[in-house]
Design brief:
Layout lengths: L1 E8 L6 E9 L2 H10 L4 E9 L3 H10 L11 E3 L2 H15 L8 H22 L5 H23 L2
Helix pairs in contact: 3-4, 4-5
Length: about 150
């Protein structure tokens, strides 16, 4: 099964109104079938091969705050959800960081911060001086890259 993210794009504004997270053996056919009953344009944002129904539920749980209705698979097109999907695209297409939008760069910084916390919790009971130094250098590099992207240097 393929996990898919299908966007509902407004005809008037051309902005993404909602995202459906679901699974199907044929994502293109699924999108085509859903398009028949939808006044807005539907667009496949991304799909991931080999995801089970349990995996689909994990994605639904991860974005439960964005769910439009509790019993459905449509989610508000929040910045958090769209950046999550964009992250898959960036990694697959290997887009260099100089071309990342600022919102995505901030998302990646937040991910790094979360990763640091997990590393500390998993690997170290007390953060060592060496780890603090590495963390400080990594944050400096990221902030420097972010500044260069914003200023165009």
């Amino acid at each position: 099964m393929n996990l898919y993210f299908i966007a509902q794009v407004s005809f008037e504004t051309q902005k993404i109104k909602a995202v459906k997270i679901g699974i199907s053996n044929n994502v293109n056919m699924r999108c085509h079938v859903m398009q028949t009953g939808n006044a807005d344009r539907l667009k496949i944002l991304y799909s991931i091969d080999g995801v089970s129904m349990a995996g689909e539920r994990q994605f639904h749980d991860a974005f439960k705050d964005e769910r439009i209705r509790p019993d459905r698979e449509w989610f508000v097109a929040s910045q958090r959800l769209l950046l999550f999907i964009y992250d898959f695209i960036v990694r697959e297409k290997n887009i260099p960081c100089e071309k990342w939008p600022l919102a995505y760069l901030n998302y990646r910084i937040e991910q790094l911060n979360r990763f640091e916390v997990e590393m500390l919790e998993d690997m170290y009971k007390k953060p060592s001086t060496k780890w603090r130094s590495l963390k400080k250098r990594a944050r400096g590099i990221i902030e420097s890259n972010a500044k260069n992207i914003v200023t165009g240097k």
